[in-house]
Design goal:
- The chain is an alpha+beta fold.
- 28% of the residues lie in helices and 41% in strands.
- It has one domain: Nuclear Transport Factor 2, Chain: A.
- It is built from 3 helices and 6 strands.
- β3 and β4 (87-97) form a beta hairpin.
- The longest helix has 20 residues, at 2-21.
Length: 135
């Protein structure tokens, strides 16, 4: 299962880099890679403590197409903490770099639901991010 989890996390972050960087086409089909893997009750807690629900997140990301040219995202240290019948708890590091900006890092905890029909059989239910000190 770790391979599927890691592929899902890496591929979704490749989507983010492509979408925010403007390398992906601004189409429903391209955006569907992201929207189709979020649970209806999805929410994310940002490093600053802001809670964003699915619909608000989808709107914000849709509107941010091409607004961060040169964005690079690296995913590291994916770790499956617990597996249950219907869900999986995971942590990973996300490192972002943009031209003329300092590199930033965050550690994310993710609850995935198992869902056939998604690219890797996983649906994002909950994400909680915390800043990592710059290195």
């Amino acid at each position: 299962m770790k391979d599927s989890v890691e592929r899902e996390i890496v591929e979704l972050h490749e989507f983010f880099a492509g979408w925010f960087g403007g390398h992906l086409p601004e189409t429903d089909a391209a955006f569907a890679r992201f929207a189709s893997v979020l649970a209806d009750s999805f929410c994310i807690v940002s490093p600053s403590g802001t809670i964003t629900r699915r619909e608000s997140l989808l709107r914000g990301i849709r509107e941010a197409h091409g607004r961060r040219p040169g964005l690079k995202i690296e995913v590291k240290n994916v770790e499956v903490l617990r597996e249950y019948r219907s869900w999986i708890l995971v942590t990973y590091e996300e490192w972002q770099r943009e031209p003329e900006r300092p590199r930033t890092g965050r550690i994310s905890s993710v609850a995935f639901l198992r869902r056939p029909g998604t690219p890797h059989g996983l649906e994002w239910l909950h994400v909680h991010e915390t800043w990592i000190e710059r290195s």
